[in-house]
Specification:
Layout: H1 2-14, E1 22-24, H2 26-33, E2 39-42, H3 46-49, E3 58-59, H4 67-71, E4 80-83, H5 88-99, E5 105-108, H6 111-117
Parallel strand pairs: 1-5, 2-3, 2-4, 4-5
Amino acid sequence: MKWVWIAFFAFACGSTDAQKASRIGNEKLVELLKTPDLQLLDVRTPEEVSYGIIETATVIDFYDPEFAAKVSQLDKDKPIAVYCAAGGRSANASKKLIDLGFKEIYDLKEGYRGWTGAGYPTVKDK
């Protein structure tokens, strides 16, 4: 019984990976975009970005070998919402953001395709 309690407390107290990104839908992103401190991160490739972005997004290609270094320049204490084309890469990028120490992470679960498919606005990258 003693070992059960030791294992329980070791897991409960030692689990720093408890932080997770919140998977959000389009409506929640619309709400978050009204927050002045929100950082919006597009992790798609340059070719994908050429079709447009969600306004105010910072573009950092997830496949860029310098991804971690570039993302680390963003403010880890401000909320960050991340999206890709359909939701897969943004989930992986969110894990990387957690590893880098970002505190409040939102992952757009249907990505850019879900956003545009629902009729939400986009702009051409600057």
